[in-house]
Write a structure and sequence with these properties.
149 residues; 3-stranded antiparallel β-sheet; 9% helix; globular
Amino acid sequence: MTDIERLWEEFELPIKDALHFGDGHSYSVALDPAVPGGFTVLAPFDLNEMLESDPSWVSSVDGISAVDLGEKGLLWGGEGSYGSEGFIARLTVERALIWAMFFTESNPFDRIHLSGNVATFSSTSGLWIAVDIDDPRNPVSAPATNRTT
């Protein structure tokens, strides 16, 4: 079991703007409303090393909005421990982590719109993130009608 899977079992994610895959791969991400999808995937990093230096640097997460994908699992969006934090995730049917993104300054994600394999997650602050649910590293654009301002 990977470190991120262990954290997910406790409904926790590291306090870092990042994309985590259940297989243990992690990437730094940056919110950027000027780019397609509203965020940029940056360099990979070693989550194990990060947690070794400060194992308490995690936030409890709680879901607010979900979209059932049937046999393909579930999309989930919500909040972290602090009011400014938000997360988005894709889970298996058994609710195991496929991938999750955490943002320290997004506010909670409370709405999800799915069109094909592109999901647009909107936060309580009007921020939106559009992702390819099969691989969120792939840049996508949300249709203008899905964006909130």
